[in-house]
Design a protein that fits this description.
Elements: H1 4-8, E1 13-17, E2 26-30, E3 33-38, E4 46-49, E5 63-65, E6 68-70, E7 77-78, E8 84-86, E9 105-109, E10 112-116, H2 125-128, E11 135-143, H3 147-155, E12 176-184, E13 187-193, H4 201-206, E14 210-218, E15 222-229, E16 234-245, E17 248-258, H5 264-295, H6 310-317, E18 327-333
Antiparallel strand pairs: 1-10, 2-3, 3-4, 5-6, 6-7, 7-8, 9-10, 11-17, 12-13, 12-18, 13-14, 14-15, 15-16, 16-17
Bound molecules: FE2/S2 (inorganic) cluster and fe (ii) ion (FE2).
């Protein structure tokens, strides 16, 4: 994968959950770059590169004083815009010159803190479309795998018969379906048609006849599975993935449900143990994949026409999605 750092210059990522950011500086890593988050007195959240421009000490080991974060080493203080506001040792404590720290744009949206190096945070369209009151469940994790492999795994139907045998699908129940990939505004989606029901336990326990099954990629970091049902309800499973480093991905996941009685406590009690099992199985296979990649020096993968999502994901991360065919149809036996 190329260009994750370049992508960071153009796109928004989830840095943290709102509840984790307070008056104590919070250090996170985004695309290999340490960032410090804190809440200034005047409100909002500040996000700065976690490096004092004086001698390079992490600002996150300092403290917050009013609207500034104060470096632990010599006490220089920086505001939310990254400007130095105090420099102890000068006659009046005022800064010499105009030292600055790179700042990121920040917004809070439905419990998550989004950051970007663009002047304004542009939320992915699939995130803007989610209704907070329809959220039934949130979950987060850090997996030792590159973001593109995590995203591919989430969207890939062809491993579900093997890795999640019986739970998501059964190999003995494979049937041909049509998969259509379409490039859209800020990403692409895949429509699966011809399979209104699914063979696994999860479907039998919690779902009913589907009228829509669509996988989305939106704003690069968001992957989402969308389902609509003949009974009139709909559900979305959304993964906001943040590349912490090249080989580590933070995942902020949620389940939204519309038009069906599904209180959060019930979802947590009944569905979560099974969904957590699916997540464990995915994390396990991805970590094994990464170990093998390391053993074989990152030898390239074979991609076949069955791997419908991979070329579009790679184009997304390489900034070449506009060069992909606007629509691609494939028959898959799932
Ligand atoms: S290293 Fe930060 S003030 Fe000196
Ligand atoms: Fe999976």
């Amino acid at each position: 994968m190329t260009g994750v750092r370049a992508f960071f210059d153009r796109h928004a990522f989830v840095a943290a959950e709102s509840r984790d950011v307070g008056r104590t500086p919070l250090r996170i890593v985004l695309c290999g770059v340490p960032i410090v988050l804190f809440r200034p007195n005047s409100g909002g959240i500040a996000a700065l590169e976690d490096r004092c421009p004086h001698r390079g000490v992490p600002l996150s080991i300092g403290h917050v004083d009013s609207d500034t974060i104060v470096c632990r080493y010599h006490g220089w203080a920086f505001d939310a815009a990254g400007h130095c506001r105090a420099m102890p040792g000068t006659r009046d404590g005022q800064p010499l010159g105009t030292p600055r720290v790179t700042r990121l744009s920040v917004i809070e949206h439905q419990g998550l803190v989004w950051v970007s190096l663009t002047p304004e945070v542009l939320l992915p369209s699939r995130i803007k479309a989610l209704q907070e009151n329809e959220c039934r469940f949130r979950w987060r994790a850090t997996w030792n795998a590159p973001i593109i492999d995590v995203q591919e795994n989430f969207l890939d139907a062809l491993h579900t018969h093997t890795i999640h045998a019986g739970l998501v699908r059964r190999a003995s129940a494979r049937r041909p379906i049509q998969a259509s990939v379409s490039v859209v505004d800020d990403g692409f989606h895949v429509d699966y048609t011809g399979q209104p029901s699914q063979s696994g336990l999860l479907y039998r326990l919690f779902e009913s006849r589907r009228t829509l099954e669509r996988a989305h990629v939106s704003g690069a970091c968001v992957t989402q599975l969308e389902f609509a049902y003949a009974a009139g309800w709909a559900a979305w499973i959304t993964l906001c993935c943040t590349p912490e480093t090249k080989g580590t991905t933070r995942i902020y996941a949620s389940l939204h449900v519309r038009g069906r009685w599904a209180p959060s406590w019930l979802v947590r009690a009944l569905a979560w143990p099974l969904l957590a099992r699916v997540a464990d199985q995915d994390r396990d296979i991805l970590e094994r994949q990464q170990h093998a990649r390391a053993d074989f020096d990152g030898r390239p993968y074979i991609t076949t026409p069955l791997d419908i999502v991979r070329p579009f994901l790679e184009a997304t991360w390489n900034g070449r999605l506009a060069e992909m065919p606007a629509r691609r149809e494939t028959v898959l036996s799932i």
